[in-house]
Amino acid sequence: MAILVLKRCYIIMNLLFVLTFVLLNSAHCFNPKRLNASAVAGSSDWSLAGATFYGSPTGYGADDGACGYKNAVAQAPFSSMVSAGGPSLYKSGRGCGACYQVKCTSNQACSTNPVTVVITDECQECVKESVHFDLSGTAFSAMAVPGQDSQLRDAGVLQILYRKVECNYNGETVVFQVDKDSNAYYFAALATYVNGGGEIGLVELKQALDSDTWLPMSHSWGAVWKLVVTSPLRAPLSLRLTYLDSGETLVASDVIPAGWQPSAKYKSNNETINAAGWADAGVTWYGEPEGAGSTGGACGYGVAVANPPLYAMIAAGGPSLFNNGKGCGTCYQILCSGNPACSGRPITVTITDECPGGPCASEPVHFDLSGKAMGALAKPGQANNLRTAGAIRVSYRRAACLYKGTNIVFHVDAGANPFYMAFVVEYENGEGDLASVEIQPAGGGFMPMQEMRSAVWKLNSNGALKGPFNVRLTSGESRKVVVAQAVIPANWKPDQMYRSIVNF
Q: Residues in domain Expansin-like CBD (predicted)?
């Protein structure tokens, strides 16, 4: 576990960080004297974060990190350029392997040049900022002007800029480390050096002599995935990785050989990537044949699912899509071609509900569509035939949400009061999901809100909160930030909707 350094300075530096953040957002610009030319050209890609370091000043953090990479973090291609991530970066282990560029401009010892780091550990204490990197000593020092790394390390908590980037391990292919406890009935492995998006949303296993069946593995911890079977596994084993964000798949054929051993490492030499980004999923439907599924969906949108701009084109997501509520608001394209009634044309749906059981739980990816969305997959006049076909196979991919002419809406919870603020956030363009929500009452600073396993965010306060309220939203993956100024008025009421003038 990462441990923050210079704790005595933490509170003071954190207050300076928040003040700087507010000033930057209110000015809507950066000081060009503090950024190099490449940063100025793409300044909109950069977001603010906090940064500390842990471990040795010239080290790699820790070799018992929460992702499971062990001492590989000190060796090429990681080469100690690693970081522990706060909750929004670590993502309960799903963020392991993600790559980010980071740079500092807020201290005289900063070089302002970006360096690339990989998330290899968790920083459970990094919760005071919405995004926080607890860097290895090597990575932290790499942000400094040559010869001033010691001064930078002594600066305490830094305000830095960061952005997500593609991982590039210079010709390396994926390496699978088999867990030491694996056997013929229990197989667990960790994937390292995953190029591209880095983060893995799903791992599936296929046995020898079985050309069609991919068995979904469960996320165990960190970057480790596991599978329990009732019959002995037949090697060689192939592994299919699905990227968390793009939905692209990478197949490592026969990567685990016959006679494999626990604790051994196996390098993939035969990788196939589905560059189109389409992956396989199951589909069913629920509710009325022409309906919106349910008005009591787990995301909390209520009757809004039947109205514009959602128009009942929604879905309940299985566990991998609903993602404990973090998938609420995400958009997907779905294409059906395996049934005579299928149109072969993609539709776009939004995740607004949870499907926790049945085929939704037994398949790695499953959409339980509204009746209207299911019918939209069909040829004209064939909607009923498709609905009576039972569970069907489709292709899907993540898509940008686009609610034309609609800005973000905040629906205040019916139980909200001056000491408890809660609301549903609706109609976010782009990625659809949110990494963080912060609220600023009249005369106060921004305070982080807590996600309630849905699209509802809440804040309990010891003192009465007074409006008008500003709300700051950070998008799920790109970490873009928008601020809805005075969106909830001073005379707000529970169970009311307040429309902003902003969107991503």
A: 185-268, 419-500
Q: Do the Cβ atoms of 444 and 463 come closer than 8 Å?
A: no
How many angstroms separate the Cα of 144 from the Cα of each of 111, 155, 431?
5, 11, 33
Predicted pLDDT of residue 60: 93
Joined tokens for residue 162: 């960061």
Spatial distance between the Cα atoms of 178 and 389, rounded to a whole number of angstroms: 41
State the pLDDT at residue 386.
Answer: 96
Calpha distance 362→356 (Å, rounded): 10
What is the predicted pLDDT for the residue at 291?
95
**Which H or E run includes 371?**
helix 371-376
| pLDDT of the residue at 245 | 77
Tokens of 432: 């659809």
CB 22 within 8 A of CB 445: yes
pLDDT at 35: 24
Maximum alpha-carbon separation in the chain = 72
Positions of the chain with pLDDT under 50: 1-43, 275
pLDDT of residue 7: 35
pLDDT at 276: 53
**Strand spans (E) along 58-213:** 82-85, 99-104, 115-122, 132-136, 158-165, 175-178, 186-192, 200-206
pLDDT of residue 296: 77
Sequence-distant (6+) residues with CB within 8 A of 44 are none
pLDDT of residue 275: 46
Which domains are seen in the chain, by residue range?
7-165 (2.40.40.10), 175-273 (2.60.40.760), 279-399 (2.40.40.10), 409-499 (2.60.40.760)
Identify the burial level of 151 via C-beta atoms within 10 angstroms of its C-beta, where 0-12 means exposed, 13-18 middle and 19 or more buried: middle
Give the Å distances, CA to CA, from 389 to 213, 233, 285, 356, 374: 21, 33, 11, 21, 11
3-state secondary structure 111-144: CCCCEEEEEEEECCCCCCCCCEEEEEHHHHHHCE
For residues 314 and 328, give the distance between their C-alpha atoms in angstroms, rounded to a whole number: 11
Q: Closest Cα to residue 314, out of 326, 301, 324?
A: 301
213 to 91, 209, 476: CA distances (angstroms): 29, 10, 32
Per-residue pLDDT, 27: 32
Q: What distance in Å separates the CA atoms of residue 483 and residue 17, rounded to the nearest whole number?
A: 18
Please count the other Cβ atoms lying within 10 Å of the Cβ belonging to residue 357: 10
For 175-193, the pLDDT digits (tens) are: 999 999 999 999 999 999 9
Specify the DSSP class assigned to residue 93. Answer: G
pTM: 0.51
